[in-house]
Design a protein that fits this description.
With about 350 residues, the protein is α+β, with helices and mostly antiparallel strands. The chain folds into 2 domains: about 90 residues, Phosphorylase Kinase, domain 1 (2-Layer Sandwich); about 240 residues, Aminoglycoside 3'-phosphotransferase, Chain: A, domain 2, CATH 3.90.1200. About 50% of the residues lie in helices and about 15% in strands. It has 14 helices and 9 strands. A 5-stranded antiparallel beta sheet has the order 1-2-3-5-4, with helices on one face. Helix 4 runs parallel beside helix 10. The protein is globular, with a radius of gyration of 21 Å.
């Protein structure tokens, strides 16, 4: 069914030499091909529902603003809102992650470029220019409960009741009510190495192109840096990790930086809890067991986060509930699905 839809659209727009790219956790599918000898990408939502049409529209609006502020993004050549697809510039297949794996550029340069783009994106007036949804009204924030719905479910072998979920959310309310202020701004929302495409030896910010920004938000600025430096799929050397935080915070006053780092750790705990649940959810509901390999890294991140005083109420609640972050003896997809 899906392949037939691609073939129909390809015929309509004259797309040939097509190759379907690997799918990620998003609702989008990407197809590489040529139109009149120009390399392009077909970005297609297999389900042309209202939510996905909104996603497509956001992609175009946000991309225009990012370009205005000097961030390299793919050009949009053509789109069809009803059929929910766009023909966009092919920026190549060298993600920053791929550059590290193939030793094209070294890790420090990769993370320096990625952090430079984040610093550049702080200039975007997300409230005035884009009217973005806020972090606290987003699915990202709402889904912080996935650590209970899926990770705790797996650890206990049974589904936690709603009272347990509400207790967990109350603990977060307590933590957040005692936090200092935090600078708010444009958040990509999924800022990791696979969404950054290397563009070769050009001017510094032009060497990095940004993709998959349609879920952008207005929210606490440390979030994207957390996503970059504590990605579930890759380990960042400690010296690079510290250097990038210092790079991002270099012009902050002492108290500003302290507040930033408190928020960094709080957002990290929310992020890793959500992703722990998400990766288990993907294995349970979509048989995407490849994500389970990253669970031990996420458990280490959570253990690290819970050592910070600001998260002591959460650590104590996990202890009370008997929820730990020790490695699983056997994290096999088939066994996991039996539990759910």
């Amino acid at each position: 069914m899906f392949k037939k839809k691609i073939e129909e659209i390809a015929k309509d727009i004259g797309l040939n030499n097509i190759s379907i790219l690997p799918r990620d956790v998003s609702p989008r599918q990407y197809v590489r091909g040529n139109i009149r000898q120009k390399k392009v990408i077909l970005m297609l939502y297999p389900n042309a529902n209202r939510s996905n049409k909104k996603d497509l529209k956001n992609f175009m609006i946000i991309g225009e603003k990012l370009s205005y502020y000097g961030v390299r993004v793919p050009q949009i050549y053509e789109f069809d809102e009803d059929k929910c697809y766009a023909i966009i510039e092919d920026l190549g297949n060298r993600s920053f992650g791929d550059c590290i794996r193939k030793y094209i550029i070294d890790k420090e340069e990769v993370y320096s470029l990625a952090t430079s783009i984040l610093i550049q994106m702080r200039n975007i007036d997300a409230l005035k220019d884009l009217h973005l949804p806020t972090y606290k009204n987003s699915r990202i924030y709402e889904n912080r409960r996935q650590i209970i719905d899926y990770y705790m479910h797996l650890k206990r072998g049974s589904k936690p009741n709603e009272d347990t979920v509400q207790e967990f959310l109350s603990v977060w309310n307590e933590i957040e009510s005692n936090l200092p202020s935090c600078p708010q701004g444009f958040l990509h929302g999924d800022y990791h190495l696979e969404n950054l495409i290397y563009q070769g030896q050009t001017q510094e910010t032009e060497r990095c192109a940004v993709i998959d920004y349609q879920d952008a938000l207005l929210g606490p600025l440390p979030y994207d840096l957390v996503n970059l430096l504590e990605d579930a799929r890759v380990d960042v050397p400690e010296e690079i990790y510290k250097a990038m935080i210092d790079r991002y915070c270099w012009n902050m006053k002492k108290q500003e930086k302290e507040n930033f780092l408190i928020w960094f750790r709080v957002l990290a705990a929310q992020f890793h809890g959500r992703v722990l649940g998400l990766f288990i959810k993907l294995a349970v509901e979509q048989n995407r067991d490849s994500y389970l390999i990253h669970i031990p890294r996420l458990q280490k991140y959570m253990t690290k986060s819970l050592e910070y005083p600001v998260l002591e109420p959460l650590k104590n609640w996990f202890i009370k509930e008997g929820l730990d972050f020790k490695s699983f003896k056997d994290l096999d997809g088939d066994n996991l699905r039996k539990i759910f």
